[in-house]
Amino acid sequence: MAEMTWRAAVVAAAVMLGGGSALAADGFYKGKVVSVYVGASPGGTNDLATRLVVKHMPKHLDGHPTMVVKNMPGAGSRKLASYLYSVSPRDGTEFGTVDRNVFTDWLLQTDRSNLVDPRELIWIGSPVQETLTCVSWKTSEVQGLDDLKSKPFVIGSTGAASGETLHANILNTFLGAKVKTITGYPGGAEMNLAMQRGETDGRCGLGWGAIKAGYHAWIEAKDMKVLIQNSLESHPELEGVPVLADLVPDGPDKQALALLLADQKVGRPMVAPPGLSAARRDELRKALDDTIADPEFRAEAAASKYEVRPISGAEITKLLDSLFAIPQPVIERAQKIANY
User: Fold this and answer.
1) Can you give the pLDDT at residue 340?
2) What average pLDDT does the chain have?
3) Tens-digit pLDDT profile for residues 185-227
4) How far apart are CA 180 and CA 182, in angstroms?
5) Is 27 exposed, middle or buried (0-12, 13-18, 19+ CB in 10 A)?
6) CA separation (Å) from 240 to 145, 228, 243?
7) DSSP 8-state code for residue 332
8) pLDDT (tens digit, 9 = 90+) per residue, 114-128?
9) What are the residue boundaries of the structural domains of the chain, listed by start?
10) Which fold has domain 2-129+266-338?
11) Between the chain's N and C termini, which has fewer beta carbons within 10 Å?
12) What is the value of pTM for the model shown?
């Protein structure tokens, strides 16, 4: 109790003095080594984004700790989520970046044996919100929304439970589209090649941020066209491109769609173990927010063509609460569409 009273006094004093966040006043991180895990292999988007954040984040934590990135790939970041939930220390010296599916898995999957309830984790924030799209190659007969509804559209997919297949199911269910998937592609590079060769018509579930970073020349040359934003709201740079949520009437279907697409809002989220003190949670959240606002971070992100559209940990938690308030019949419909 004395510790809590002391901390409350420090918080109040800092607020009165306007001297910044009192959560960073105890010098906890001085001399510490902080492990920041990535639930994916080295070299991927989540890995590179995390390393960029970690490069700039120490100066925004009181005590300026040494921060080390460690990779823990496995089961779509479920391995890392399980580690943070059950093994990791609860003092702020370990946290990590998980795939966004960890945010909605618990609600969309019926088998929860290897899952962590996302409400048990501490959501620190994310440097970016995703906007997923469906794109067509120039040789495809599908070059607009009407075509997507009336003509077959073949895309590549890594498997039956992949994001590509999910987005095909979503478009077919809510728009009456005719998207067909060819499964078995190892990854995005192979799916791009298939599209260029004419084996497929395009890709679905491709993020606008990824397009800007790697494929924007195709857009400028009109080799590739964005048909639709498979999202809940429009990206600021995609004005005029239809948004899927705008095409679905209000009601249970739109609620199901909101659940299916909700993970885009969290992008590449950083999470900490349960049991973290409120003060440490807020310190990490503020440090991430300050890092994302840091001009040096922003400049390096721009040079790397890395999109920055942050969402705070508090906003993520509020969104999560709203998803768990969705009626069970709507959740079951979303599960069926997701084909879990």
Assistant:
1) 54
2) 91
3) 988 889 999 999 999 999 999 999 989 888 989 999 999 999 9
4) 7
5) exposed
6) 12, 10, 9
7) H
8) 999 999 999 999 999
9) 2-129+266-338, 132-230
10) D-Maltodextrin-Binding Protein; domain 2 (3.40.190)
11) N
12) 0.87
The 10 Å Cβ neighbour count of residue 236 is 9
Report the C-alpha gap between 35 and 97 in whole angstroms.
11
Interatomic CA distance for residues 118 and 271, integer angstroms: 10
Residue 290: CB atoms within 10 A of its CB come to: 18
Structure tokens that stand for 109 in this block:
């999957």
What's the rounded Cα separation, in Å, for the pair 263 and 237? 20
pLDDT of residue 18: 34
How much is the pLDDT for 159? 85
CATH topology of domain 132-230: D-Maltodextrin-Binding Protein; domain 2 (3.40.190)
Place of tokens 């606002």: 293
CA distance 109 to 335: 6
